[in-house]
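We recall that each integer encodes one residue's backbone shape. We quote one record:
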Amino acid sequence: MSDTSKAADYPFDRRVIPTAAEETVWTASDGHKIRRIDWQGALSSPRGSILFFPGRGDNYEKYLETLDQWHRDGWRVTAADWRGQAGSGRLGSDAVTGHVGDFGDWIADLSDFWREWKAQTPGPHVLSGHSMGGHLVLRGLAEGVVDPDAMVLSAPMLGFAGSLPNAIGHAAAKLMCRIGDTTRPAWKWSEKPGQVPASRQDLLSHDPDRYEDELWWREKRPELVMGPGSWGWVERAYASMRGLFEPGKLEAVNTPVLLLGTSNDKLVGMPAIEEAARRLPNAEIVRFGDEARHEILREVDPVRDRAMDAIATFLDREAPAR
């Protein structure tokens, strides 16, 4: 199974919802509607099931290629929005700024979604996330609200890029929350609301076509558009990341975890990913350099193929078919 299908092995239109996939809505315990997409997989001989969550400001449309590839490799696949993102409403004061009252709200959704999803799908069960999604699923694992057989993290948001210590950044974010509206944007995005800055691709991917796919989906589905995070989001992000690195927390996680990270990441910090890999008892890390930007699973084919091969090999070993 480690010879996972490559993107070039079959034609795939990244701007179409695959016919094998179904978009529906999951209702949280408080009635909030959250989008999901499911590939039922080969039910006669399932490889297992993968649940994937995207990053801050993301949508599952960006990862259709990867999700469908896992499906073609025999997995039953699901992805979902985070509450307040993409097509699952907003939690702030406008339609563009990403806000959340507390990351614990997302952990509560993850707990409920996981419990229902696991009961309805064949094992082994794999939980995966990119960037903020990677942070949240790892936090859920560390706090015991999810119990996957294995976990795959793509450029997980375990620390922000740059040399500013988390304690100082957190103190600054707390100050900004005290002196103004916590839902206001924490950074400038564009002179025109909703318009993506020209330099944004330099942060995400070397692949211009895959990057343009995201812009195409935002135009087709305007509800997907999201810009900066709020100051409330920044402060809560620091609090959540610092909490995850409390002494003994990662050391208590025995689940096999694969981490993908790049030293060329300008959004999340590779040193934090490295520290997590050292502290997790059953972790493996795949390192990239200048060839990869933040969105490793949406990079040029040589980078993306290496990442997908590493994931397949890891899952064959740590979550073998039953």
Remarks:
- The chain has nine helices and eight strands.
- The mean pLDDT is 94.
- The first strand starts at residue 21 and ends at 27.
